[in-house]
Amino acid sequence: MPNIRHILSLSGGKDSTALAIYMRDKISDMEYVFCDTDKELAETYEYLGRLEAFLGKKIVRLRDDRGFDHWLKVYGGYLPSSRMRWCTKVLKIKPFEKFVGTDEVMMYVGIRADEDRGGYITSKPNIHPVYPFRDDGMTLQDVHRILDESGIGFPTYYDWRTRSGCFFCFYQRKNEWVGLLERHPDLYEKAKQYEKTNPVNGERYTWTERESLEELARPERVAEIKAKQQDALLAAKKDKPNRPLLEILGQDEDDDNLPCSFCHT
Ligand code: SF4
User: Fold this and answer.
1) Are 115 and 179 in a shared domain?
2) Would the pTM count as exceeding 0.90?
3) CA of 174 to the centre of ligand 1 (A)
């Protein structure tokens, strides 16, 4: 293919970062991009800065200038959810596709060989997704090794959250919301401000099902979530004692509905 561009889209997570390191010496004209929603954690920007220094190349930030709040109005105040994930489309995929234009592009995606999820689905015939980790049989263990050996390590938000993405991402588990509450109370408050009740029909727009962030932040509820998480960790450790903690934490209650590679790799 003539004049093909090679682009690796980083999510700010461990897998796409490890892929960037893995590909650094394989494709010399690789372009690195990050689709920035402006609702990311400070830890994500810090992690991208670390990677940028390692790669010795700029990571281009792509944005939709109208931003999340504009699109929330366009979508009638409906918070995005796994069933209606408009945020990924307008804040990640569209800016990426605009950046690519009509150029022929190989797009490098960090989905691993030990994952069972779909990749980047595009209607653009000029964008060709490739999956080097999947093709080369690279698993979570390899990602750990690559990040350790490079000295880049894991993003610091991994202490309390297993995925990259917006601070209010609806894919967060309950214990991760508790993590946000404790580590970033200001961001928790901002996320709470987005939740609304329709005064006409009483319908609630909340980030998590059946529970508002106000309800989730009650001390007794926080204690309950923490206890449940502790029990789950102990059970998982007992079941498979050698399993890394990160792998246990990364287990999703809702594996049929895994988030896309744009936000979380
Ligand atoms: S990280 Fe979550 S909230 Fe942000 S764009 Fe992706 S799916 Fe939407």
Assistant:
1) no
2) no
3) 16
